[in-house]
Design a protein that fits this description.
By secondary structure, the chain is of the alpha/beta class. It has 2 domains: 109 residues, 2-Layer Sandwich (Enolase-like, domain 1), CATH 3.30.390; 202 residues, TIM Barrel (Alpha-Beta Barrel), CATH 3.20.20. It has 11 helices and 14 strands. An 8-stranded parallel β-sheet has the order 5-6-7-8-9-10-11-12. A 3-stranded antiparallel β-sheet has the order 1-2-3. α7 links the parallel β7 and β8. α5 runs parallel beside α6. The chain starts with 13 loop residues before the first strand and ends in an 8-residue tail after the last strand. The N terminus is likely disordered.
């Protein structure tokens, strides 16, 4: 970690974790299941004068549960600096919440914004993708029509029937003819299905296909010449396997809940760029408190996918201000 982003040193703080449930606006479905509420954990660190907060989403895909993450945060006794934290906890949701809370605390202590501490540009008027969850072709077409003015649509696919997924894609493209399209499969296909889908995706103007094969089954992608760039999501966590990923994919989806916080995410974004990999900044379904630190990665990204609050029935108050496809950083929320 660059020394210029750590100005708080080792600090004596108290830690608390709180589990919160936020209803989603409508059932959110991917290849692995349906979400009706967003379960988030908020870590708070206080030094008696200042308070820092960070939000995480326990990632069931990696065996995390909300009660486990709450216990892990509540039991944490240090070290309370970001470099020490990275060595004390593994990558994942708990470390993310604590890492982001320490960034928030450092910003408040220093009187400088977190983006200044991270030495990145202030994220202003950032275009974010908007996600269409998995449904019937007709329903996805209707949702695409309602969202046709969005700059980028992210389409959730990944079923046993690639023919039906092709139908879904065509329904979305018909109803949102001008939107840029990303497809997210969430490990839902075989190589044969991917081979069948790619020509149709190219014709429909799809710009990226995310995680088409399951982690552990994607080694075959090293010899697959896809005219549509492939992006790793579930296959990459903190980037320790980046060399292998770079042989199989042309892009990586960086999510703070996978990397274990903003500190590692910033380093991973730079490492990915050094390997000529495109960067996607992604999120789980969660509130503006999760989105704000992730926005600091926007300057590295080909695509920003931070629409989590737009998928909720309501967001925090104050929350980030979303104006259609655009969102800007706000210190009122975090950092």
């Amino acid at each position: 970690m660059d020394e210029n982003v750590e100005n708080s040193g080792t600090c004596s703080v108290e830690v608390a974790a709180q589990l919160q449930s936020w209803p989603v606006a409508r059932p959110f479905t991917i290849s692995r299941g349906t979400k009706r509420t967003a379960e988030v954990v908020v870590a708070t660190v206080t030094d008696g004068e200042f308070r820092g907060r960070g939000e995480c989403v326990p990632y069931s895909r990696y065996g995390e549960t909300a009660p486990h993450i709450v216990r892990r945060i509540d039991a944490f006794r240090g070290p309370f600096d970001r470099a020490g934290l990275a060595n004390a906890l593994p990558a994942g949701a708990a470390r993310n919440a604590l890492d982001c809370a320490l960034w928030d605390l450092a910003a408040k202590r220093s009187g400088r914004s977190a983006w200044e501490l991270a030495d990145v540009p202030r994220p202003v008027d950032v275009v974010t993708a908007f996600t269409l969850s998995l449904n019937t072709p007709k329903a996805m077409g209707e949702r695409a029509r309602a969202a046709r003015d969005r700059v980028v649509l992210k389409i959730k696919l990944g079923t046993d029937s690639v023919a039906l997924d092709i139908e879904r894609l065509r329904a979305v493209r018909t109803n949102a003819p001008d939107a840029r399209l990303i497809v997210d499969v969430n490990e839902g296909w075989s190589l044969k299905a991917l081979e069948a889908f790619v020509p149709v995706a190219l014709e429909a103007g799809v710009e990226m296909i995310e995680q088409p094969l399951a982690e552990g089954e994607d080694a075959v992608l090293a010899g697959f010449q896809s005219p549509v760039p492939l992006c790793a999501d579930e296959s990459i966590r903190d980037g320790s396997n980046l060399a292998a990923v770079a042989q199989r994919y042309q892009a990586v989806n960086i999510k703070l809940d996978k990397t274990g916080g903003l500190t590692r995410a910033l380093a991973l974004a730079r490492e990915a760029q050094a390997r000529d990999l495109s960067v996607v900044v992604g999120c789980m379904v969660s509130t503006s408190l999760s989105m704000a630190p992730a926005l600091l990665l926007a300057g590295f990204a080909r695509f920003v996918d931070l629409d989590g609050p737009q998928l909720l029935d309501r967001d925090r108050d104050p929350g980030l201000e979303y104006n259609g496809s655009r969102v800007s950083f706000s210190e009122r929320v975090w950092g």
